[in-house]
Amino acid sequence: MSTTSPLRPVPLHPVGLRLQGRRVVVVGGGPAAYRAAAGLLDADALVTVVSATVVPALESMAAAGSASWTRRSYASGDLDGAWYAVAATGEAAVDEVVVGDAEDRRIFCTRLDDRENSSALPDSLLPPAEERPAHEGRSGRVVLVGGGPGDPGLITVRGQQALSLADVVVVDHLAPRTLVAGLRPDVRLVDASKLPRGRAMPQEQINEVLVSSAREGKQVVRLKGGDPFVFGRGMEEVLACVAADVPVEVVPGVTSAVGVPGIAGIPVTHRGLTHEFVVVSGHVPPGHPQSLVDWSAIGRLRGTVVVLMGVDTAAAIAAALVEHGRRPATPVAVVTDGTTARQRTIRTTLADLGGTLRDEEVRPPAVWIVGEVVDLAARGCAGAPQRGQREVRASSS
Hints:
Layout: E1 23-27, H1 31-42, E2 46-50, H2 56-63, E3 68-70, E4 84-87, H3 92-104, E5 108-111, E6 141-146, H4 157-164, E7 168-171, H5 177-181, E8 188-191, H6 203-215, E9 219-224, H7 234-243, E10 248-251, H8 256-263, E11 277-281, H9 295-300, E12 304-308, H10 314-323, E13 331-336, E14 344-349, H11 353-359, E15 366-370, H12 373-378, E16 390-393
Parallel strand pairs: 1-2, 1-4, 2-3, 4-5, 6-9, 6-10, 7-8, 7-9, 11-12, 14-16
Antiparallel strand pairs: 12-15, 13-14, 13-15
Helix pairs in contact: 6-7, 10-11
C-alpha cells in the first residue's frame, strides 16, 4: 500500500542547473517567453526561441546574436539536443505537446502556465515563502524606474522595491533583463521596446497602458534603461499621468552616459584636465532637419563629449566635431554592452572612428566618449578593465 497521501504535494528536490554553453529551447514568443529567455541568457545558456512571431525584446536579442530565433511554429524535433526546455506559448495544446516531447526525450521542462505539469520549476514558480502585501483598498499608481545601464546590481534600492510591489511592468528592451526574469509569475509584463530603426510601441499607446492600468487599481512600474529623463521620454509619461490625475513617482537611475564610461575606467571629468562634459543624442546626424544639437558649439568645447545612440551616425558626428575645432587625433573610446559580461571597449580617434566601428562590427547599445580623459584609463589612472570586458585598440589609418 502506498504511504503517500493523495493530498500531499509532489516533493521537490532543490537544485540549480548549470546551463553555460548548453542548448536550451524556449517555445513561444510573448512576454512570458521573453522573461524565460532573459533568465536563461543570464545563465550563459545557448538559447533558441521557437515561434512564428516574437515581441520586440526577443527580436532584439536575436538581432544582437544573444539568442537564435526559429521563425515558425513548434515542430517535433525542435528539442533535439537540448538540455532544458520552456513551454511558454500560452496555448494549452501546444504547451502540452512540448512537455510531452520533453518527457519522451528525458529533458527537464518548465511549463509556465501549469506548474503541476512541469518537470522543472524556476524560482518564480516555486511556492512563495511569504505572501506579498495585498493591494486591496490601495489606489493605482505609476512609478517610472530607471533600471540603470545593464548590470541589474546598479538599480537603486527604491527601484527594486517598486518592482517587488508591481502588478504591471511596462519594460524597454534596454532595461536590465535579469530584473525582468526575476519578476513574480503573476506580474503582467508589457513589452514596450523601441528598437533602433525597427519595431516600436507608439508612445501614445505606452501612455495609455500606464494610465489605464493604474486606473484599474494596479501598481504599475515603467521600467526603463538608464535614467528615465535622459533621452528616455520619461517626462512625456509623467505628463500623461498628471493629465489623467494618476499618481506618479520618478525613481532616477544610473545613466549610461556616466555609468558606462565609469565602469570602463574612464572618468568624464578629471581635475586639471577638463571642467565640463556634455551628453549628446546621436540618433540623427549633423545637418538633419530634426537635429536640435549645435554641433559647432560642441566642436569648440575642450572637455568631454559623451554620445548616446550614435552608432550609425558616428562617422558624420566625428567629421562635424573635427570641422568645428576638435583635433582629428582626439582619443575616442567606444564601449559596447556597458556594465554587462559582454562589455567591450574599443579605443580609436575621431579621424578613425567611422572605420573602426565598421571594422569592429559595432552595434547598439554603445556609448562613445571623446576627449583626453580616454587616455587616463589607458595609463591606468582610472582603473583597469572590469567585469571581464575585452579591450580593442584600433590601429591608426
